Amino acid sequence: MEEPEVKIGLEVHCQVTSLKTKLFCSCPADYRGKQPNTHVCPTCLGLPGSLPVVNKKAVEEAVKVALALNCQVANRIVFYRKNYFYPDLPKNFQISQYDYPVGVNGKVYLDVGGRKKEIRIRRVHLEEDPGKLVYKGSITESPYTLVDYNRAGVALIEIVTEPDLSSPKEARLFLQRLRSILEHLGVFDGSLEGAMRCDSNISVAGGARIEVKNISSFKEVERALTFELLRQRNLMKMGRKIERETRHWDEVRGVTVTLRVKEEEMDYRYFPEPDLVPIELTPEFIDAVKRTLPELPDARKDRLTRQYGIAEAEAAVLVSSKPLADFFEEAASMCKDPVKAAKFVVHTLLGVLNYYGLDLPESKITPSHLAELVNMVEEGVVTEKTAKYMLRDIVVSGRSPRRMVDEEGLQKIADSAVLEEAVERVLEEEKEDVEAAMKDEKVIHHLVGHVLKLTKMRTDPKMVYEMLKERIERLKTSYASA
Amino acid sequence: MLRLRAVELARMVREGEVKAEEVIEAFYERVAKVDGKVRAFVRLIKERALEEARRIDQTVAKRGRLGKLAGVPIAIKDNICIKGVEVTCASKILAGYRPPYDATVVARIKAEDGIIMGLTNMDEFAMGSSTENSAYGPTRNPWSLDRVPGGSSGGSAAAVAARMAPLALGSDTGGSIRCPAAFCSIVGLKPTYGHVSRYGLIAYACSLEQIGPMARTVEDCALLLSIIAGRDPKDSTTANPPRPFNLSEVKGEVKGVRIAVPKELFGEGTEPRVAEEVWKAIHLLEELGAKYEEVSMPSLKYALAAYYVIAMSEASSNLARYDGVRYGFRANAEGDWSKVYSKTREEGFGPEVKRRIILGTFALSAGYYGRYYLKALKVRSLIRNEYLSMLKKFDVIISPTMPTPPFEIGEKVEDPLSMYMMDVDTVPVNLAGVPAVSVPCGFIDGLPVGLQVAGRFFEEAAILNVALAIETELKLYSKEPEVA
Question: Are residues B166 and B72 in contact, defined by beta-carbon separation less than 8 angstroms?
């Protein structure tokens, strides 16, 4: 039986990390690791009598984002007040946008199973970040709550999609693509903790729309939505009705829990912010911003395949993250064979990073490390296997590959006498495998493994295979003749 | 000395004819003598003021440069922030709050060597027309102590009228400067919206209000305006006027001035004797060479309703921040944050403030927004357009400031609607955003009557000019209340 259709829409909040100051005051926007409540002023604390003043640069950055997401950019934007009480909101309203946002009707393209899929963007707007609530221990057991307003007033760009995503995996791919676009624009650094947050709407055909809040990173989105989807499908299988509600993603327990049911839905009482005047975005201004737009992931992918002759699939992986694509291009400029470099990055480096659970910028490897490794394989200094082994070390140690080869004696064994000796020794010691290999050629691979192990990967597996195959053939003939 | 105009005081201080310290002492003495009865001030900052005065005197001794307000004492409404000085909006909820910054108007006054004496009483959060809605109790009208001084800047008006300060600042959201100016027989001006920075003015309804000067004479009022007016980068709603306000244009010359007299502003509820006093002044202007015409501005009948919807809606949002977490009063309550917030707001706000927060919250609610708030905005643009087209044909619009003379304390407290009706002639001006001044034009049984002159955007000089002509003819500034 076919599963009922799933519809997912996302509301993504990204801090404009390229800004030095907050959205409505001149306090420093960089709040991470600072003493609590030191980057504050009357405006971002919402003190009586204070007034907001729009950061012009923030508007420019938002226009960039709207253009990059193929939106229609407004010729006039208006800020609104979103009214609700919460202890992280110094004014008990948030300055946000409602009618007249920066951009509407955009689209982003995803590669889904080799097919190009269009995700429509409903709107792009600017708003201020609330402060940060700090608990002593867990939220449920903390005897008090502390508020740090350093984050209050930091500029956020909210990006709302239409419900065009049809699986949790697509949601993750979308966020990845969005992050890459924003990073290419230079407005956003996704490696900063809490810089991207996301709410989601998810429904299964026949059930109501459920909002899932508090998804704190793009890694969490797939987990949260997978859980929620399972929950909704199970309810439906049991014949239960899915009623409209807002749920909270509990990252630690890996479940969603009810936050508010329909009757308790908030009425934000939006109205135009009277302390700010509408901002006109002239066609000249929008054109000028358009001209400053850098190369974006789609264009970069095309260029990478053209310029370096690499496969489209690999180029697509590379541009899914700006730091990764930058890394590749820098390494490629030092490599004799960029195609090999691309393969090494996409198939080997990403696997190693994944193994450690690291993002590229968190690891110690540099493009020149990678270029050296690729070049050493190319020059026959080390085997591919050795290079992979070295990569595991370099990613966390940052050691120089050439020095590592010398220090650990990792050079490829070019001396055929040494190689032959290793092969002979394995043939001696692994009698069972040898006998099996005589009946089934596939078992030769086992023997290759033994040789590689014995030589600490410093031998070329192809060459070893050929040697072993020849020796096994000979053994077979000699048995037959015996 | 108490009778001297601010311009004279500043000149005398600058030229060493009198010491700033003596000036300040004299006015504080006056406060000590009469404010027990009037209750205009809620907070005096005498030590600071004396320090300032001594600094000024030293500058005089050293023949240093001094500003246009050198040594002039100024009373400030209790909703304007002075760094380090408690400010409460006459509300319990802000008790103990000391702002860490100066309002732009305060900084400008300090830059001209004006001396702030203290903060004056008001209706809580500027919500009222009588200065009765105050956590400190009512201020009394110096002309008749059992009557209200008007509001919400009643403390500032009473202080000036009772000679406790030559100058004062008020704020005007729907008439809060002009109403008490009229009731206390002083001059009070609501500037063009965007002419004076609101940075440091604790908001009631931001799209309507302006800080403005209050004084005994038009000249002093104009002087204070010239100092506080002008664009402020900290307030995005301020603008540079096409021509900066120029004191020297206020000459009292009204020959050829075209006056519109809208019949709607002499409507139902206007006491005939008030209308009579205003008409007398209009005829006086006619004798001086002005021309008047009776006109109709039909949209004005919707002004009061539109005003209250907009003001209350904005107030419901502006006053949300008072939750007891960061400053001011916090109720002693158990439970989660929402219980503590509720209890704090229940105990901290007075009844009129709560009424307006609740009504404003309702007006902005889903399903009602279009019916109330949006509708009110439409009325507002209708009214603005009517003012603009009227002011194409005429230079100024004249009406009574208040429909009645000052009423008795307690008379309207139980009847909020009749209190709201008192604002009928003043609120259209706030909706339109144009400037207006109230100038004394007569007395009825010893109770003051004020006349309102409204004019074009940023043409404060033109309305002050007409006000000066009236003042010069009637010389009502020489009349003094018999308080003390």
Answer: yes
Q: How far apart are CA A328 and CA A322, in angstroms?
A: 10
Among A45, A51, A89, most B C-beta atoms within 10 A, so best to mutate, is A51
Domain limits of chain B? 6-252+436-478
Residues of A in contact with B234 (CB under 8 A): 51, 53
B399 is catalytic: no
Greatest distance between any 2 Cα atoms in chain B? 70
Q: What is the mean pLDDT of residues A28-37?
A: 95
pTM: 0.92
Q: A278 and chain B: CB distance < 8 Å anywhere?
A: no
Domains plus CATH for chain A? 6-289 (no CATH), 295-408 (no CATH), 416-481 (1.10.10)
Q: Is B85 on the interface with A (CB under 8 A)?
A: no
Least confident of A86-95, A108-117, B214-223, B287-296: A108-117
- Taking the CA atoms of B290, B468, B243 and B204 in sequence, report the sign of the dihedral they define: negative
Contacts for B187 with CB less than 8 Å, ≥ 6 apart? B181, B214, B215, B216, B217, B218, B220, B221, B437, B438, B439, B440, B467, B471
Check residues B125 and A380 and name the one with the higher pLDDT: B125
- Does residue A370 carry a pLDDT above 80? yes
Residue ranges of the alpha helices (H) in B144-214?
Answer: 154-161, 178-184
| A269 and B CB contact within 8 Å | yes
Q: Are strands B396-400 and B447-454 parallel, antiparallel or unpaired?
A: antiparallel
Active site residue B153: no
pLDDT in tens, B47-92: 999 999 999 999 999 999 999 999 999 999 999 999 999 999 999 9
User: How many CB pairs (< 8 A) connect A and B?
Assistant: 100
CA torsion B251-B254-B259-B263 (nearest 10°) is 80
B176 annotated active-site: yes
Q: What is the pLDDT of residues A402-418, one digit of tens each?
A: 999 888 877 887 777 77
The answer on pLDDT for A154 being more than 90 is: yes
Pick the CATH number of B6-252+436-478 from 3.40.30.10, 2.40.70.10, 3.40.50.300, 3.90.1300.10: 3.90.1300.10
Partner-chain residue, chosen from A48, A52, A271, that has the shortest CB–CB distance to B373: A271
pLDDT for residue A263: 76
Asked if the C-beta of A52 comes within 8 angstroms of chain B's C-beta atoms, the answer is yes
Interface check for B365 against chain A (CB to CB < 8 A): the answer is yes
Of B100, B325, B369, the CB nearest to A87: B325
Euclidean distance between the first and the last CA atom of chain B, given in angstroms as a whole number: 16
- The structure tokens 């009778």 sit at B3
CB-CB under 8 Å, A267 with B366: yes
Nearest in space to A258 (alpha carbons), one of A270, A268, A248, A244: A248
With a cut of 70, list the residues of chain B below it in pLDDT: 484
Which residues of chain B lie closer than 8 angstroms to A46, CB-CB? 321, 326
Q: Is A239 on the interface with B (CB under 8 A)?
A: no
Task: Please give the average per-residue pLDDT across A256-282, as a whole number.
Answer: 92
Token duo for residue B72: 């002039």
Query: Over the stretch B344-384, which tens digit does the pLDDT of each residue have?
Result: 999 999 999 999 999 999 999 988 999 999 999 999 999 99
What distance in Å separates residue B36's CA from the closest CA in chain A?
29
Strand order in the sheet with A93-96: A93-96, A80-83, A271-272
Residues A1-20 have pLDDT tens digits of 456 799 999 999 999 999 99
The mean pLDDT of chain A is 92
Q: Cβ of B202 and A48 within 8 Å? A: yes
Nearest chain B Cα distance for residue A10, angstroms: 24
pLDDT at residue number A371:
95
CA distance A461 to A474: 20
